Structures are given as structure tokens and as C-alpha cells.
Amino acid sequence: MKKKLKVAVLFGGKSAEHEVSVRSARNIINALDKKKYKITPVKIGRNGEFYLDQIKKFDVVFPVLHGPFGEDGSMQGFLKLAGVPFIGPSVLGSAVGMDKDVAKRLLREARIPIPKFVVLHPRGNMPFKKVSKILNLPVFVKPANLGSSVGVSKVKNKKEFNKALKDAFQYDSKIIIEEGVEGREIECAVLGNEYPIASIPGEIIPNSEFYSYQSKYIDAKSVSKIPAVISRQKIKEIQNLAIKVFKTLDCEGMSRIDFFLKKNGRILVNEINTIPGFTEISMYPKMWQANGLSLPELLDKLIDLALQRFEREGKLKSTL
Fold first, then answer.
1. Catalytic, out of 273, 282, 284, 309
2. Taking the CB of residue 21, how many other CB atoms lie within 10 A of it?
């Protein structure tokens, strides 16, 4: 009988996305094949404390940690130093993917279409009048290093702008201000290492002005359509662009790329999520399910990819 792989599922963490992480981890643990894996849930408290009786040697780790201190390369660096295979992008891809400012600059350098944006630091000063002139109204104000739409505000006037800045700076020391794009919200899942593949795209239809944290996880009234009702040509275009984004940002394993599809047919890349949600309503597993890959099969594939990368990197020379 084949020996079970020891899988650690890390979840929780010091992030505003703590609760989403808990929900994702619960769904993953329930779906992992108990005949193949010996699963150890490892909770990380909001204070960063690990809730584990003793340190064990794991065959592979799934860091289901959304946001800072988990999705930003910090946990990936720790696991890399510990010599443990882990699921998802490595240090660089995770760090770059988490920082919306750096990611957008790299995408722009690669000539990948993105919305116009400006960046603001706490000591910086960019008057509302200047922002509205550069980007037009409405604009979106976001923490540069966070996901799940936490701290995101849609701004139409100066009063809302000042409130949005104050709110976003509660979560990050750098914020990004983007032009408001009128268009459909399309998402695409990517899976793989050296030769990634893209899923059939899905569409999010928010129940509010935008796909906020409230509409994602509390009201849960937003509608998802998988597959998105778009032409075959647009599907192929989005898939190719998703893979290009994935490679440009040095990602491996998995990522979800979010797009805007404008009325004139133009596609803009919104952002990348290197540890996408795995809750019961999350788009990443649902899009792969629409491609014929069940959640247990998807998790098998992600574990295989993590082990393949670990084996490949283990062959590299570390001494002269």
C-alpha cells in the first residue's frame, strides 16, 4: 500500500482576510482525498502565533493564507528556507502578485493592457482635483497589498475620496488609485509550472456598485456565470492573456487573473491572485470544475506541481 503524503494546510494568519482563509481551508481539508493524504490543519492566529503541538516534517504544505504574511512571499520564503515543498507561486511571484503597484508596472512594461492608476504614500500629497483630472471619475481607492476587496472604495466626489484614503491607509502604507472601468468582470484560472494552462473564463455580476467584500462573503448575492457568455475568440484572447500575466509575474502552481471586458471589446487586466479563494463560492475551483476537474482532482494536481518544482529546484547547484 502506497504511503500517505503528509499535507499541512496553513490557514488564518495576520491579515484582514483571516476569516476568508479559514473558510478556504475548511473547504480544502474536506475535499482532500483521505486515502492519499494525512492532513494536518495548522491554524495561525491573528497575532501570528502557530497553533501546532509540535513541529512535524511535512511532505508538502498548502499555505491557504490570503493577504499579507501569507500570500506576499513571506511564508513562501520561510518554507523555502525550511526545505519544504509548498503549493502556489514561490517568493518572487507571490511578492510581486501581492503588490498591485509593482504588478501593474511589470504588466505595463510587458505591454499588457491595464487601467490607468496612480500610487499614494502616507506622506505623499495628491489633491482630489489632480486625481480626477488624471483618471476621471469615478475612481477606485485600494490598499496596494490586500485582496478580497478589503479596504476598497468607489469614489465619485471629494468627500468620498478623503474617506476612502483614510480607510485604505488603515490596511496598508501604500495605496493605489485606479480609473473606474465600465465593463464586465471576467475571471480566468491558471494552473501549471513551466507550461501553464488556463480555464474557461467565468463572469462575476455584482449585486452592488462593485464586487465588494460585503457582496462576496456577507450578502453572497452576487451572481457568477461559468462559463462566461462571450465569443470563442474572446475566450481564447482572455486565456492567452491570463497565461501571459502568469508568466510575466513569475508565477507557478496556481493563480486567478481578473479582467475587465469593455463594451468595445477591449480587455484590461485588473489584478492577479496568487492564492485565490477556495471557499464554497470561490471562482478558482468552480472554473476548473467547469473544465471537468473536480476539487479533489484539482488539489491532487496542485500537490503534484509543488512536488515537481521542489524536485527540479533540488537539482540546482548550491555550491561552486
1. 273
2. 28
CB-based contacts of 283, cutoff 8 Å, min separation 6: 187, 189, 202, 204, 224, 226, 256, 276, 277
Helices (H) and strands (E) in the chain, counts: 10, 14
Residue whose C-alpha is closest to residue 164's, from 184, 182, 150: 150
Query: How does DSSP assign 164-213, residue by residue?
Result: HHHHHTTT-S-EEEEEPP-SEEEEEEEEESSS-EEPPPEEEE-SSSS--H
d(CA 110, CA 123): 30
Active site residue 258: yes
Judge contact between 279 and 64, C-beta under 8 A. no
CATH class of residue range 5-88: alpha beta
Strands of 50-51's sheet, edge to edge?
Answer: 50-51, 37-44, 5-12, 60-64
Predicted model pTM: 0.91
pLDDT greater than 80 at residue 291: yes
Catalytic annotation present for 157: no
Residue 294: CB atoms within 10 A of its CB come to 12
Question: Residue 273 catalytic?
Answer: yes
Above 60 in pLDDT, residue 214? no
| pLDDT attached to residue 2 | 78
* Given 15, 271, 284, 309, the catalytic residue: 271
| 8 A C-beta contact, residue 151 and residue 168 | yes
Is residue 256 part of the annotated active site? The answer reads yes
217 in active site: yes
Residue 132 a catalytic site member: no
For the structural domain made of 117-179, what CATH number should be given? Answer: 3.30.1490.20
Identify whether 148 is a catalytic site residue: yes
The two domains 96-113+182-304 and 117-179 share their CATH topology (first three levels equal): no
Beta bridge partners of 119: 176
Superfamily of the domain at 96-113+182-304: ATP-grasp fold, B domain (3.30.470.20)
Q: Is 211 a catalytic residue?
A: no
Residue type, 169: F
Every domain of the chain and the residues it spans: 5-88, 96-113+182-304, 117-179
